[in-house]
Structures are given as C-alpha cells and as structure tokens.
Amino acid sequence: MRLDRELACRDIVELVTAYLEHALAPKDLERFEEHLVFCDGCGTYLEQMREMISATGRLGPVSLPAELEQRLLEAFRGWSPA
Amino acid sequence: MGVIERAIDALPPAQRAVITLRDIQGLSSEEVRNALDLTETNQRVLLHRARSKVRSAIEEYMR
Q1: Which domain holds residue B28?
Q2: Is some CB atom of chain B closer than 8 A to the CB atom of A44?
Q3: Domains in chain A, ordered, with CATH?
Q4: pTM score > 0.95 for this model?
C-alpha cells in the first residue's frame, strides 16, 4: 500500500487494520506513525481499537447456535467407541 | 449478551466469520485465509469492516 501525501485523519482510520496487521509499506508506516506523533485524536482511536480487539479476545468460546448444537448432539447419539 | 457480541452477531456472514476466527478464536491471518479461501487483501478488508462496525457499535453504546 503506497500513499504519496501527508496522511489525514480519515486515512489513519482507513489504514488502522493494515497498520495493526503489519501490512503497510515502510514509507506508509513512517507517515502513519508521523501522524500519530502530532494527532492525539488518532492516538486515542488506535488505542480504542487495540482495547476492543483485546476485549473481543476475552469473550471466550462462541456459543453454538441451537440448531448446530442439536446437529452436533445428533451426530454423537448412539455412538460408542469401536 | 454484551455490546461486542451483539455487534458481531449483526455483521454480514463473511465479516462475522473473519472477526470471529481472528479476534475471538485467535487464529492467524494466514490460517483464516486458508480456512475461508481468501486473498490477503480480502481477509484484511473483511476484518477492517468488521472491526470498524464493532467499534461504531461501542461508540454508539457509550453515547
């Protein structure tokens, strides 16, 4: 991903996932981090994203929808190890 | 159900699948690309949209 001007806040919002995925080209990474140095708002935005991702990671296992659970139980019913 | 789970539940299927595998189950982007047969860019775009919507939902919730 290449950009050839100074980054605006909306670019930061657009690129935040690429940044967190370490997918920015070196030049863009430099611009991204430069922007963060002088823009508190985008610093907060990035921090919120990190907090949210970490909170999502603590949700624990996703509960199975009822019909899938039913199918799973069906598949095990009457089964005994060979 | 909390605000994050409700927001994830409301996502279109592909976005929901990517954010669930990446951020809840903790799979790597490569594992998710292979599991869902996505290009690197598509995986990232779906993850970006999903995370942006969840973030908006939290913002909305805090208002």
Answers
A1: 3-62
A2: no
A3: 9-76 (1.10.10)
A4: no
ipTM of the complex: 0.92
Q: Does any CB of chain B come closer than 8 Å to the CB of residue A66?
A: no
- The whole-number pLDDT of residue B48 equals 98
CB nearest to A59's CB, from B4, B51, B55? B4
Contact B48 A18 (CB under 8 A): yes
CA distances from B5 to B20, B51, B57 (A): 10, 12, 10
Chain A to chain B, count of Cβ pairs less than 8 Å apart? 42
More confident residue, A80 or B41: B41
